[in-house]
Every structure is written in C-alpha cells, then in structure tokens.
Design brief:
Number of helices of chain B: 3
Pfam families (chain B): MrpF_PhaF
Subcellular location (chain B): Cell membrane
Mean pLDDT of chain B: 85
Shape of chain A: elongated
Helix content of chain B: over 70%
Order of helices and strands of chain A: HHH
Strand content of chain A: under 5%
Strand content of chain B: under 5%
Radius of gyration of chain B: 16 Å
Low-confidence stretches of chain A: none
Number of strands of chain A: 0
Shape of chain B: elongated
Protein name (chain B): Monovalent cation/H+ antiporter complex subunit F
Membrane topology (chain B): Multi-pass membrane protein
Largest sheet of chain B: none
Structural class of chain A: mainly alpha
Largest interface: A-B, 52 and 52 residues
Keywords (chain B): Cell membrane, Membrane, Transmembrane, Transmembrane helix, Transport
Number of strands of chain B: 0
Low-confidence stretches of chain B: none
Oligomer: heterodimer
Helix content of chain A: over 70%
Radius of gyration of chain A: 18 Å
Structural class of chain B: mainly alpha
Largest sheet of chain A: none
Chain lengths: ~110, ~90
Amino acid sequence: MSWGEFVDVVAGILLVLGAGFAFVAAVGVVRFPDVLTRMHAATKPQTFGLLLILAGLALRIDSLSDLTLVAVVALFQLMTAPVSAHMVARATFRTGQVDREALVVDEGD
Amino acid sequence: MTVVAIICAVLLGLTGLLCLVRIVRGPTMLDRTVAADVFTAACVGAIGVEAAVGRHGTTLPILVALALVAFLGSVSIARYAASQAAGGPT
C-alpha cells in the first residue's frame, strides 16, 4: 500500500466516524426527554463529529488556501458551539422548562 | 472512496431526518433550535464529505457561511425566548 492510499484510508475512516457521531447526536436529540438532555446529546458529538469530518477533508485536499478555509471552519465551530449552547441553556432556565427537582446541583439563577 | 461516500450519505441523511422529526414534534421553540443546530451541522458535514470525496475546494466558502449563520440563528432565538419569558420587549 502506497503512502497516498494509506492517507486515503485514514481520511475515509475519519469521514465515516464523523458522520457516525452526527448520527448519534441526532438519535439523542430525538430520544431524550427534555431540552437540557437533548443539548447534552447534541452539542458534543456534533462538534467532535464535525471536527472529524473536517480532519478527513483536510487529508484529502492539497492547496493551502483550501486548508486555511477548513481550519477557519473548525476554529469557528469550536468558538461558537459553547456560546450558542450556553445561551440556549440559559433561555431554558429562564423560561422554566427545567425540572429542578431532578438536578443534583442547581446553580441556575 | 465510493463506499465511504455512500456510508456517510446514509448516516448524514438519517441525521437530517431525525432532526426534522424533532423539529416537527417540538414541543418548545428551544427544542427546535437544538434540532436545527444539529441539522445545520449535518449539512456542513455533508458538504465536507462531498468536497473530500470529490477532492475539490469549491464548496468550502459555503461551509464558512453556514457555520456563521447557524450560530447567529440559535443565539438570536435564545435571546428572543429569554426576553419573552422576562416579559420584556420581543
């Protein structure tokens, strides 16, 4: 197996893993009972799966400008996902959709 | 690479379908926001897989725009929901 084929196999594995993570996130979004648990299922595999897909994509393309764009997307995803997740969770608390009896630690005021 | 493309297409398509189920069933606006976020991530992933399989970078600017729009969308909906609950201006 030549070096190029090896890189292609690694990229394929990364792509499939990333798509699998996105699928797991969607299953969690459908099956979990309330907003906070759905966010728990959604945000982490979604970000990690997307990073895996972008890593596989970065292995497949050659030009430096394209690689820069991929890095920008990855960086942007890492920066914005926590912010939007935090804001959605805070809005969930403010609108009273959290079952506060079920929480172990409740610091949401 | 064709096998990889087919597997990824099936997985990401199922992801989109499940997110659509959650968007339709709700029950609240924030549930739909979370599901729409995952849906957008699936779209970004699908475009990324397509670019990786085809070995081209033509669609990469779409990825940047899509990531930006998804972030703005969920933040503005969250702010809207919070201010409605506080009785403030919508």
